[in-house]
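Before a colleague's protein record goes any further, I have to sign it off. My question to you is simply how this chain folds and whether the tokens agree. I do not need a full report, just your reasoning and any doubts. This is what I was given:
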Amino acid sequence: MKKLLCPALLLLASLGHALEMPEVPELANVPPAARQAAASIDPEKIRAHDRFLSSDLLEGRGPGKRGGQLAAEYIATQFALAGAKPAGENGTYFQAVPLMAVHTDVEKTNFTFVPATGEPIHLTYGEDYVTKDQTGAPSVDLDAPIVFVGYGINAPEYKWNDFAGVDVKGKILLAIVNEPPSTDENFFKGKALTYYGRWTYKFEEAARRGAAGVMVIHRTDLASYGWEVVRNSESTETSYLRGDPLSVLRAAGWIQLSVAEKLFAAAGMNADRMIQDAGKRGFKAVELPVHLKAHIVSEVRNYDSDNVIAMVPGAAPSPGNNVLYTAHYDHLGIDPNATGDKIYNGAVDNGTGCAILLELARAYATAKIPPPRNVYFASVTAEEQGLLGSKYLGMHPPEPIGDLTLDLNFDELLPLGIPRSVHVSGSERTSFYPVVEKTAAAFGLRIEPDDAPMAGHYYRSDHFSLARVGVPAFSINEGDLFAGHPEEWGKQQKAEYDAQRYHRPADEYRADMDFRTDARLAQFGFLLGWQALSGPPVTWKPGDEFEAARKKSIGH
């Protein structure tokens, strides 16, 4: 259990941090009243929100659970106190997202590889594999052939189809995480990951083709996160949108690379050679002389979990050019099987983003002048389950998608002090990027390129759900450089967080967190949003993968 910070210490921290906040820069196309509103953004208000949202009382903010409901009610209450108007359903702040939660019964579930010749290979849940039955059945038995489909991608624009000439209906697909390796920016964007490399795409493509299941081969070097992240994420419930035609796999899972090596060996094949060949043109999917025999037992519950949506009306009543700010409030809840601390508090991921969203809403709502157009604030649910809340928001936006000119997302911002650099990956894909560059320069923020393009960070947070329906969208995150520290210090802090706290119960609020990071980037996001509201409509650059969706959303 965490100890509460005493009021005197909070007051001292508040005074110290407030005095050290840099000034908000002047920008020619931002009126003084808007700049003043941005300057009112307070790191200690952000601290207070984060501290409450990540307390044990909220039980890890699991979607559909008591703690998640408390978080949603708190966020709605704070929107109301700030003066932001409800923009959910039926005049409320809430948008009910219909979900189905599946929890695999580890003790009763089993996976076995049964080769045509040789001994069966029994797997251990959590250590060797994880899986979920997306259908909602209480139990399912599988005895199906395994087909190695390389990266499990069909990408006509790159003339790549791992499914050419093979029928995978009713079979188990074995697919490598990520996408074919390349340094050619015209082929799967070179080193940068496209959506084809995401595990969510592989599950969706398998569902489109009628497969019974998928086993994604995990590799830390390609996934950019270790096996424990996969295991921890799957140890609690996984939710799906009810009625989603692309969530129908009976076994949606992952296996360790070492397990894949055993599987290939049982089929008389060399894993390294098969994986290497899968990255070359001319690869053909191959059915292995091995079946997966599985018994999967699930605890299933249907429930609704709310997106919480507010808005500040703009001065201009005409449609279009409205801005959306997003941040997910859910985390991983409670793991009843864990030893020691069982609560995934999610202080950084994403108590920070929620707290920023609430401060942005307060700053817009209390500004001395209204924003040029409507501004929306959506704190979404079930991000950790696969961006489900934001996916539903994209399907059911508070106003027509074509009228939203930009989504700015905040997710997992480490509170480390005054930032001197920023990540805005994806903004360079839009016509808004010159404004981002100019504003970053005014704030004294160096724009850092994505240091791990193969990780596909752009496709792993809620802005992607808006991008895929056409809205120009990107996240704002801190870079590696902080005032008073060498660049290596920032990198070390992030490495420590990733290794010891990310998606672990250790992601807890601490009194030494310095929320000037979050406040400064909230100010940056405020001025970006204001400029988008008053500027020309934001578009995707010609040829971008989301350009067609944008044209469709605006009727072109």
Notes: The CA atoms of residues 540 and 547 lie 5 Å apart. The two ends are 55 Å apart (CA to CA). Residues 1-18 have pLDDT under 50 and may be disordered.
